Amino acid sequence: MKPPLRIAILECDTPLDQTREKYGGYGGVFKALLHAGANALGDERVSAEGGLDISTWDVVNKQDYPDHDEIDAILITGSRFNSFDNDEWILKLVSYTEQLLKQDRVRIIGVCYGHQIVGRAMGAPVGRSDKGWEASVTLMKLSEKGQALYRKEILSIHQMHRDVVKSYPPGVEELGSSPRCDVQGMYAKNRLMTVQGHPEFNEQIMRELLESRHFQGIFDDKLYDDAMSRVANHHDGVIVGAAFLRFLLDD
């Protein structure tokens, strides 16, 4: 694709207070990731200053979507909601994704919940993992294709999920796995790229989420303490952001 890359971020949730105050919404969080990824990419066609035309769309409350001919790519964000539920807005999101999968110009990026929505739209089973929560910075063992895309053998990435894509749908390449999740990412050249983790998260965002879920009783002390012990570890979010942009720029 030739810049400017018109990327529509489909916001599937609202951040907690501290993150919302800093970034405005998950669209702002991803805009920061893509700008950092563009600067790290070292490609003169894109940078934080130019080459990216990023828009945000509230697909939960407003159920707004961009017209296909006005964008080059969508990025489906994470969410606290269940990707396998049948709420009106979720079904509309799945349907919109299915429509995009039937064409070959607009490319699809899915992150965490978005990764699961893409899997569901492609007919893969999606549901609760029997291995429980995967949270904070974890290691993702990359496949051969994953190593080629991320240019690493092992990826460190924030996680916050207990729902998973349970098996790969037809027509995609595997990107990697972790001890608690076999399907950590999917890829189809010039079509789609997904990741179960959260490259857009940083220590502050993850700490806020962990503290909130511990306070609510969603995370017990053991799970909370384990996740907090890794929250400040190095993570490769910017590397993933750069890989997303390479995927979009690739002819």
Topology:
Blueprint: E1 5-11, H1 17-23, H2 26-41, E2 52-58, E3 73-76, H3 88-101, E4 107-111, H4 113-121, E5 126-128, E6 134-142, H5 144-150, E7 154-161, E8 163-165, E9 173-174, E10 176-177, E11 185-188, E12 192-195, H6 203-215, H7 221-228, H8 237-249
Parallel strand pairs: 1-2, 1-3, 3-4, 4-12
Antiparallel strand pairs: 5-8, 6-7, 6-10, 9-11, 11-12
Helix pairs in contact: 2-8, 3-4, 6-7
Coarse structural class:
alpha/beta
Record field, number of beta strands = 12
The fraction of residues assigned to DSSP E strands is 15-25%
Mean pLDDT: 98
Helix content: 25-40%
Description of the structure:
The chain contains 8 helices and 12 strands. β3, α3 and β4 form a beta-alpha-beta unit. The protein has 251 residues and is of the alpha/beta class. A 7-stranded mixed beta sheet has the order 2-1-3-4-12-11-9, sandwiched between helices. The chain has a 3-stranded antiparallel beta sheet with strand order 7-6-10. The longest helix has 16 residues.
